[in-house]
Amino acid sequence: FFLCSCLTFDLLHVLPDAQPSQSETEIWEKVNQVLTEAQVILDDLQAYRGAGEEIRQAIQSPGVEGVQEKAWSAVVPLVAKLKTFYEFSQKLESSLHCLLDVLTSSGSSPTQHLEQKQALARQFAHILHFTLRFDELKMTNPAIQNDFSYYRRTISRMRINNLSADMGNDVNNELANRMSLFYASATPMLKTLSDATSKFVTDNQDVPVENTTDCLSTMASVCKVMLETPEYRSRFASEETVLFCLRVMVGVIILYDHVHPSGAFVKTSNIDMKGCIRVLKEQPPSSVEGLLNALRYTTKHLNDETTSKQIKNMLQPN
């Protein structure tokens, strides 16, 4: 099983792209468009600097002419970016649904699905990689929350004073409320995917939940073995490949924890959680702190009584 699965993951990331079969092409092309946009989203988020200085000036000098306008002009295009990020989360949710549909269908085991549908399994891994990377960047950028809060306060003030808020205001109140909820989460993209996976299981009662959880636990096991086995680890082309593998592992653990009735942390779990956490803790702290935080704060069952003290201690912040 492990040899076969490790070969699968070799093909998932290290070797050139697996080509979709004819029956998979439509889904693959649809998801590929989303993954192409995902890279643009990450680049934009990485370059996001915020309007902290302009907002500070506006708050400190409310009566000074031009200061409010300058802050507003700085914030409006940033909120347009935040709107794009939020709307992209909905595209990602739709892509995840398409892939789960195929990778959890009855008739083949999870390992067979990953073997036979490598092009789609690889896309699933890339969605998880994007999700964890987006949330790592968001978690370390307080400007996002500050900019959006300032935007909402300014819009409210304009409404109260009957001023026109049309300038750049293509975020109506309902959308602003949804965006607020999205950005209030420490890990907004992961929360989107976790909710989407849970909804997928609920909406597809004819598909046994094991089809989904076995697919997720298989991918977690594959990642762990790839990371802890020197023979496989030595084949990784770069540190970025290691991070790819770590992000995918954490992503599938979190989805599994949301979907499996007992979660990922119980003794009977199909995921070796102690082993996975150990692998994470063996990496340079700076590269995995965001991933450990995702396990601490985005999982569903970590604080259950059924979770062993050892696992809880392993995930205690230093």
From TrEMBL:
It is a lipid-anchor. Keywords: Lipoprotein, Membrane, Signal. This is Protein FAM49B-like. GO terms for molecular function: small GTPase binding. Transmembrane segments: none annotated. GO terms for biological process: regulation of actin filament polymerization. Belongs to the CYRI family. PANTHER family: GH09096P (PTHR12422). It is found in: Membrane. It comes from the Eukaryota. GO terms for cellular component: membrane. Coiled coil: none annotated. Residues 1-18 form the signal peptide. Residues 16-312 form the CYRIA/CYRIB Rac1 binding domain. Pfam families: CYRIA-B_Rac1-bd (PF07159).
